[in-house]
Automatic annotation (TrEMBL), chain A:
Entries under PANTHER family matching the protein: DIHYDROLIPOAMIDE ACETYL/SUCCINYL-TRANSFERASE-RELATED, DIHYDROLIPOYLLYSINE-RESIDUE ACETYLTRANSFERASE COMPONENT OF PYRUVATE DEHYDROGENASE COMPLEX, MITOCHONDRIAL-RELATED
Record key words, sorted: Lipoyl
SUPFAM superfamilies listed in its UniProt record: CoA-dependent acyltransferases, Peripheral subunit-binding domain of 2-oxo acid dehydrogenase complex, Single hybrid motif
Single GO cellular component term: pyruvate dehydrogenase complex
Entry-linked Pfam families: 2-oxoacid_dh, Biotin_lipoyl
Keyword Nuclease: no
Protein name: Unannotated protein
One Gene Ontology MF term: acyltransferase activity
Domain Peripheral subunit-binding (PSBD): 150-187
CDD domains xref list: lipoyl_domain
From TrEMBL, chain B:
Stored CDD domains: TPP_PYR_E1-PDHc-beta_like (cd07036)
Cofactor names: thiamine diphosphate
InterPro entries: THDP-binding (IPR029061), Transketo_C/PFOR_II (IPR009014), Transketolase-like_Pyr-bd (IPR005475), Transketolase_C (IPR033248)
UniProt-listed Pfam families: Transket_pyr (PF02779), Transketolase_C (PF02780)
Keywords: Oxidoreductase, Thiamine pyrophosphate
Protein name: Unannotated protein
Domain Transketolase-like pyrimidine-binding, residue spans: 6-181
SUPFAM superfamilies in UniProt: Thiamin diphosphate-binding fold (THDP-binding) (SSF52518), TK C-terminal domain-like (SSF52922)
Gene Ontology molecular function, alphabetical: oxidoreductase activity
Automatic annotation (TrEMBL), chain C:
Molecular-function annotations in GO: pyruvate dehydrogenase (acetyl-transferring) activity
Protein name (record): Unannotated protein
Residue ranges of every copy of the Dehydrogenase E1 component domain listed in the record: 25-320
TM helices/strands, residue ranges: none
Gene3D superfamilies reported for this sequence: 3.40.50.970
Pfam family, one: E1_dh
Regions annotated as coiled coil: none
Length: 367, 332, 333
């Protein structure tokens, strides 16, 4: 009884994954004794001679000098009378060759095709700790943290909560650092106050302000299967295809959110360039904040288009208002359980009926 | 309430004696702990009370002594090792950091090392660089060691009893300057344990939180008393065990005071107290800070010899006082 | 004799004893061969230190011990562990990083301990276990347990301060301890000729006032006989003994060893001094075992290792979720 024994590329260091076969010291048919050098291999660290594990005869040279061979893969096959330990690693494919006794006389060495099933593929070291990627941090609404001004942590928290731009706060602490009491006694930035007031006024006076503009509205029914983030993203994408309509370098989508403090109009800048999941998180946090009357200052300006969502009021449609310096606006209304009404208003000074129809079609198609 | 005002040396001896009486497997070994009574007189008369079988004088061989304690602890005993100066633990570091600390984990929980290593540390005695270090961060950075730094006799007694009970290796760092002075509070009779890993709020105030270890708790306390008369009220927290570290009272206090100062004797660079700052900086209480965190620590130098140099190398009461005053005044 | 399977006595005292000696030497040999094989296949993490060629030393020493006697071991510790009676499956499982491994995959090759057989653990630090064994012997003496602690270490460890400090403590306190040096001629690549200014390492015993004896570490009978004398002396309270067993590791220090510091001829010479055939010949000559029995015992050892590997391979991998569990032993309420 003789056994086939694959002599494999050995792992020779903690980090080794492959080895280069340098040369064989034996040829097919050679008789070898345990301890005789069979071949030499090279790793990043060392050259090493690999010895015969037992007495026997060389049956096949599997590798060729110059080959880079994974650890655990056979380099040559010997036939040996010495019984070798046969491990069962489970599964046929993994059955080690050493287990297969060959009837004598040994058949002529089979050529290229592997005579033996590959020995066990190297398994990754089982003790390596599993490193899970860190969870994606939820996207918080951008709050103004002006790193060019120095402020203690609590001053920053307070300023963000109250919508105070730290650049406007006079620092009294050491090294011109803004202290907590500096923020506490600070007045709101007059510019911000003015902007907030103007926003409220705009909403109240929207109709009057846009009445004089030549405008047209279009209505379409759409599948209701989208959320605000998708809508905002899709609408921005459609608009980006019409740079001729843009009076600005960017696209800023205003979403009107009702709160107990009145309407808030946070602006999502270039939302089509943001990953949809991040955008969704941003829309959620901003909407929640807006419902509490807290829209980050950075999001209060820069709108180039506006979306009104009336579905929560079960209204089906309304003629959307155009805000000053905006060419388009959308209204989403309730249509049925599964459909929504989308209305588009355009400023006819910038585009015509045909443009408007195309824009709305493109939006609905992309939803 | 007892009015026994013991020194820390007496309190430690009392705790060891209680443990000796409670458990036959407790014994003490170390250089000169026997008939000499310990280099700082901590074991005192224990040799005469318990005999040479349980109070073992050893040769000067720190690695061998700690190794023997580890082996005895693995085999059913509960050794207390005294290393004459904490500086000499460097000689025994393989047994402390590679053996005692890791055996339980490395062997998958099969064995454990219920051992206490007591050692005096700290400056102020003029013993210079190789007999005066504060090595808290050496031990606190080794997973598997518990590290206790008592600041007063009453705590030392309760903490040492808990340390002897603990099934893990405990490094018990005693400040030399505290050995001979009584604490502010009497040492209770009996065998009450103080659990490891529970910080103590020494006093409460609303303007500043001070976290200090070992002798710095005492120095900070004096500052608290003095500044209270000026209307500055300070919370003083003594972690007592620096590993594991109990941060909860620190968070709670900083949320009230908005100001944090940390004080340690050892060098500032990579010192233990930096861990308190790091945990604070990463916590949700960070947003409560109305002042930058103030760190007072030793200079990044070996402890010098001459008294005026030695004094300059580590925080003194005046330094703590000035820093506390400044942080409260400047940051509002 | 107690029911303790390790309290065997002289390897040639009976067929049963001879069988034990041969079986354990073969188990060690086959275990190391299996480890080399599995490592070569990339199934084992880290590194490994094989004791092929040295099997007679731990086997002879441990045949003089009871299961309650304690040992500390070295980075080249598989043999000590097996000779003291450890479970082969749990050993292999540890090397494969499995939950059922002796250390739950946290220790690996260099840190296997087995409380049930008095094995206080292998050690990754040269000389690390010697003071620990002194401490175990101190505990035995204080608790009047009557047990002996054996520290296995290599020639390299004898130049560590830990050896000196522990040997001295054991000597002055007359601890029931055996300092068992397996002198395999090389501390990694440093030969004893380079690392010692004395020819006979056992001479060091004199410096501590304890007996120092040399034995042929490849002769399980000679090792046992010296061990028995040392154990008797220790149990009688007469103190420790230094035993220096002259032996040789056939394989490199670890896997990444190119054997640059020794010759092929030297390795070949020592291969001829293989402790296993040497013992077989002697056992047959003294009519303790037949050739057939010897063949059967070797096969039994191989089968045991194969079965251990097969079982261990299938075991559940150690789970990182439990990593914080054993940093500290829980304080019992």
């Amino acid at each position: 009884m003789s056994f086939k024994y694959p002599v494999v590329m050995p792992k020779m260091s903690m980090t080794m994954e492959t080895g280069e076969l340098l040369l064989f010291h034996v040829k097919v048919g050679d008789q070898v004794k345990s301890g005789d050098v069979l071949f030499e291999v090279m790793t990043d660290k060392i050259d090493m001679e690999v010895e015969a594990p037992a007495d026997g005869v060389i049956e096949t040279l599997v590798g060729n000098p110059g080959d880079v061979i994974e650890i655990g893969k056979p380099v040559l096959i010997m036939l040996t009378e010495t019984e070798v330990m046969a491990f069962d690693f489970g599964g046929d494919a993994a059955a080690p060759v050493a287990a297969a006794p060959v009837a004598e006389p040994v058949a002529a060495p089979a050529p290229v095709a592997p005579i033996v099933p590959a020995p066990v593929a190297p398994t990754p070291p089982p003790v390596a700790p599993v490193i899970t990627p860190p969870p994606v941090a939820p996207v918080a609404a951008p709050i103004i943290v002006n790193t060019s001004v120095k402020a203690v942590p609590k001053a920053r928290v307070e300023a963000a909560n109250r919508g105070i731009d730290l650049r406007t706060v006079h620092p009294t602490g050491p090294d011109r650092t803004i202290t907590f009491s500096d923020v506490n006694s600070a007045q709101l930035d007059p510019a911000v106050l003015k902007r907030q007031a103007a926003n409220k006024a705009l909403i109240a006076k929207g109709i009057e302000m846009t009445r004089g503009i030549a405008q047209a509205s279009f209505n379409r029914r759409a599948n209701a299967n989208f959320d605000h983030a998708q809508l905002i993203s899709a609408w921005a994408k459609v608009l980006r295809g019409r740079p001729d309509l843009a009076a600005h370098q960017h696209i800023g989508v205003s979403l009107i959110i009702e709160s107990k403090y009145g309407s808030a109009l946070p602006v999502f800048r270039d939302p089509d360039l943001i990953n949809i999941d991040q955008l969704r998180a941003l829309v959620t946090t901003t909407s929640d904040a807006a419902k509490n009357g807290k829209v980050p200052i950075a999001m209060l300006s820069g709108g180039t288009t506006t979306i009104f969502d009336l579905t929560s009021y079960s209204m089906s449609s309304a003629t959307p208002l155009l805000f000053p310096n905006q060419v388009t606006s959308l209204t989403i209304g309730y249509d049925s359980e599964s459909t929504k009404n989308i209305s588009l208003t355009i400023d006819l000074n910038f585009c015509d009926f045909y443009d408007g129809a195309l824009l709305l079609d493109a939006l609905i198609a992309s939803l | 309430m007892s009015d026994r005002m013991l020194t820390m040396a007496e309190a430690v001896r009392e705790a060891m004696s209680i443990a000796f009486d409670e458990r036959p497997e407790v014994f003490l070994l170390g250089e000169d702990v026997g008939i000499y009574g310990g280099a700082f007189g901590v074991s005192g008369d224990m040799y005469h009370r318990y005999g040479s079988e349980r109070v073992l004088d050893t040769p000067i061989a720190e690695l061998g002594i700690v190794g023997a304690a580890v082996g005895a602890a693995l085999s059913g005993m509960r050794p207390i090792v005294e290393i004459q100066f904490s500086d000499f633990t460097a000689q025994a570091m393989d047994q402390i950091a590679n053996q005692a600390a890791k055996i339980h984990f490395m062997l998958g929980g099969a064995l454990h090392v219920p051992m206490v290593l007591r050692t005096p540390q700290g400056s102020g005695t003029g013993a210079a660089a190789q007999h005066s270090q504060n090595l808290e961060p050496w031990f606190a950075s080794v997973p598997g060691l518990k590290v206790v730094v008592p600041s007063n006799p009453a705590d030392a007694k309760g903490l040492l009893l808990a340390s002897i009970d603990d099934p893990n290796p405990v490094i018990f760092l005693e400040h030399k300057l505290l050995y001979k002075i009584p604490g502010r509070d009497p040492v209770p009779e009996g065998a009450e344990r103080i659990p490891l890993g529970v910080a103590k709020v020494v006093r409460e105030g609303k303007d500043l939180t001070i976290v200090a270890t070992g002798i710095m708790v005492n120095k900070s306390y004096e500052v608290c008393e003095k500044l209270a008369a000026e209307g500055i009220s300070i919370t003083l927290i003594d972690p007592r065990t620096i590993s594991p570290l109990d941060m909860q009272p620190v968070y709670e206090s900083v949320e009230k005071t908005g100001r944090l100062m940390v004080v340690q004797e050892g060098p500032a660079h990579a010192g233990f107290i930096n861990e308190v700052i790091a945990q604070m900086a990463g916590s949700s209480s960070f947003g409560s800070l109305i002042a930058p965190i103030k760190r007072l620590a030793g200079m990044n130098i070996p402890i010098p010899y001459a008294p005026q140099l030695e004094k300059a190398a580590v925080p003194q009461i005046e330094d703590i006082e000035a820093a506390a005053r400044e942080i409260v005044k400047n940051w509002r | 004799m107690s029911a303790n399977p390790l309290l065997m006595g002289h390897p040639l005292a009976s067929t049963e004893n001879a069988r034990h000696a041969l079986l354990y030497m073969c188990r060690i040999r086959k275990f190391e061969e299996a480890v080399e094989d599995l490592f070569g296949r990339g199934m084992m993490h880290g590194t490994m230190h094989l004791s092929i060629g040295q099997e007679a030393s731990p086997t002879g020493m441990c045949m003089a011990l009871t299961i309650q006697d304690q040992i500390t071991s070295t980075h080249r510790g598989h043999g000590h562990c097996i000779a003291k009676g450890a479970d082969l499956t749990r050993m292999i499982a540890e090397l494969l990083g499995k939950e059922i491994g002796y250390c739950g995959g946290r220790g690996g090759s260099m840190h296997i301990a087995d409380v049930e057989t008095g094995n206080l653990g292998a050690n990754g630090v040269v000389g690390g276990g010697i003071p620990i064994a002194a401490g175990a012997a101190l505990a035995s003496k204080m608790m009047k347990k009557g047990t002996v602690a054996v520290s296995f270490f290599g020639d390299g460890a004898m130049n560590e301060g830990a050896f000196h400090e522990a040997a001295n403590l054991a000597a002055i306190w007359k601890l029931p301890m055996i300092l068992f040096c397996e002198n395999n001629k090389y501390g990694m690549s440093s030969s004893t000729e380079k690392a010692f200014a004395i020819d006979n390492l056992a001479d060091r015993g004199k410096g501590y006032g304890i007996p120092g004896v040399n034995v042929n570490g490849n002769d399980v009978v000679e090792v046992y006989e010296a061990a028995q004398i040392a154990v008797d002396r220790a149990r009688k309270g007469e103190g420790p003994t230094l035993i220096v067993a002259e032996t040789y590791r056939w394989k490199g220090h670890s896997r990444s060893d190119k054997n640059l510091y020794r010759t092929k001829e030297e390795i070949e010479e020592w291969r001829l001094l293989d402790p296993i055939p040497k013992f077989i010949a002697r056992a047959i000559k003294q009519k303790k075992l037949t050739q057939e029995q010897c063949d059967g015992i070797q096969q039994e050892a191989t089968d045991a290792i194969v079965a251990a590997v097969n079982e261990a391979v299938k075991a559940k991998a150690a789970d990182p979720a439990g990593l914080l569990d054993a940093v500290f032993k829980k304080v019992s309420a």
